Amino acid sequence: MEGEERGYWRWSKRDFFPEESFQSFGSYRAALSQTCSRFKNRLVSRSDDETERVELRKQSENEMKRCLTWWDLVWFGFGSVVGAGIFVLTGQEAREEAGPAIVLSYVVSGFSAMLSVFCYTEFSVEVPVAGGSFAYLRIELGDFAAFITAGNILLEGVVGTAAVGRAWTSYFATLLNRNPDNLRVKTDTLSPGFNLLDPIAVVVIAASATIASISTRKTSLLNWIASAVNTIVILFVIIAGFIHADASNLTPFLPYGPEGVFRAAAVVYFAYTGFDSIATMAEETKNPSKDIPVGLLGSMSIITIIYCLMALALSMMQKYTDIDPNAAYSVAFQSVGMKWGKYLVALGALKGMTTVLLVGALGQARYVTHIARTHMIPPLFALVHPKTGTPINANLLVTIPSALIAFFSGLDVLASLLSISTLFIFTMIPLALLVRRYYVREVTPRADLLKLIICILVVVISSMCTSAYWGMNLKGSWIGYTITVPFWFMGTLGIVFFVPQQRSPKVWGVPLVPWIPCLSIATNIFLMGSLEAQAFVRFGVCTLVMLLYYFLFGLHATFDMAHQQIVPRS
């Protein structure tokens, strides 16, 4: 029995639902009758650094192997970010939304991403656990806020992997000199956007997840090699692009106006997603306090510069009206007489998207692992394999739905949903950082807490109003901004002058607090508001599904876990 208990592959009911609430229909009915009181308990309860760093890790039974350095993290950052976004979305958004000003869209989204990176870095140094943003929010904002974020993390992971898988097929087709849809199976029984079945994407996603499950160290080595090849291709794109540049292609620079720049920025933000995967590798990093800041800030600084140069090169090679929205760089090189260049670009894009899938598989599995440690999802997914030192079950939980979605859904359906989910997560992190700096339980006076809440609400609401006013598209009218922007400043200044800081970072901290976190909140909300209405509808439906799961299962499992009402494994 003991050997069976210690085995990794377990599928009994108690491995999925060991909590007291799920041991019988009667106990589950009793738990449901206490939903209101339990929700109130989880809403006001908070975790702490020690619980996240030490106690919860015991749920995995085996430790992850510390094998990564800052060098690995920089290349993981590069590999996790540079992929489908820059190669696919740049052409799409330059053609339809921003024109040559697509370079400004990358500046805006890069600036917003860098603000989020600063906030992530402080948390990842102080709370070096696999849960990343989920763990940070559990400590500062409580279980419910952490759950909503956890749901979006899983949504981002699943949808993001599916989107990159679909893009991989498109560039593989370009490499074979074929139309991308020729490698997909068309069926008339499904609606447009879901009727091009993609078996190649399924195979690529499964292969990446398998490699990530075998060894973190070997995945890092493979990522380094692939990223090095991708870097060579990117340098070629930039240098060759500027050699064949025609400055007249930059005119008109803003064909769709400033509104188009921000609409495009909200979508190309997808190109910056993935950096949060670095924070989830803290348990496998030899020296988290030094290596993670270098990995996060170093990789994102380089990536932002590269993206802007690549976008500018594309805009100068071709008139924005002639840019191919599906394979922009390949067709652009054809247009300047470098037909062979399209194959090199396709190879680089494939390499980039392969590393995105590899690093994404690592990061998403570690998110899932820590979420499962809290019993918010079945604890079976928290287990770390004793031989590989990797969470194989967690990898399967993300890989299977990703492969299914990639099989059916087009990239255009996935990109906007992914962007809004990511922006929501990145809005919550700076908000949690403000709470961490200015509020300590049982220490902060109630009056200071009330002032902090009021100031944060002013910042958030003024940011939402600014975004909404921009979305109204009232050309030439700036009256609304003369109200909303000063209110944002008033909220931020209120924190500066009237709320004393209660905590200072021990090792590395975000500079210019509260300005950087408040600016991060504002830019993320602004970009979120620039997305189309359909993205919010899809986001709302997904959130309702998450809430249904939470009140039927997640709430009761985490309540029992917090109160140690767990039935021992047999």
Automatic annotation (TrEMBL):
Transmembrane residue ranges: 67-89, 101-123, 144-168, 196-214, 221-244, 264-282, 294-317, 343-363, 392-411, 417-440, 452-472, 478-500, 507-529, 535-555
DNA-binding among keywords: no
GO cellular component, one term: plasma membrane
Keywords attached to this entry: Amino-acid transport, Membrane, Transmembrane, Transmembrane helix, Transport
GO biological process: one example: amino acid transport
Domain (Cationic amino acid transporter C-terminal): residue spans on this chain: 508-557
GO molecular function: transmembrane transporter activity
One Pfam family here: AA_permease_2
InterPro entries reported for this sequence: AA/rel_permease1, CAT_C
Membrane topology: Multi-pass membrane protein
Subcellular location, record wording: Membrane
Gene3D superfamilies in alphabetical order: Amino acid/polyamine transporter I
Family, as annotated: Belongs to the amino acid-polyamine-organocation (APC) superfamily. Cationic amino acid transporter (CAT) (TC 2.A.3.3) family.
Protein name, entry field: Cationic amino acid transporter C-terminal domain-containing protein
Organism: Brassica campestris (Field mustard)
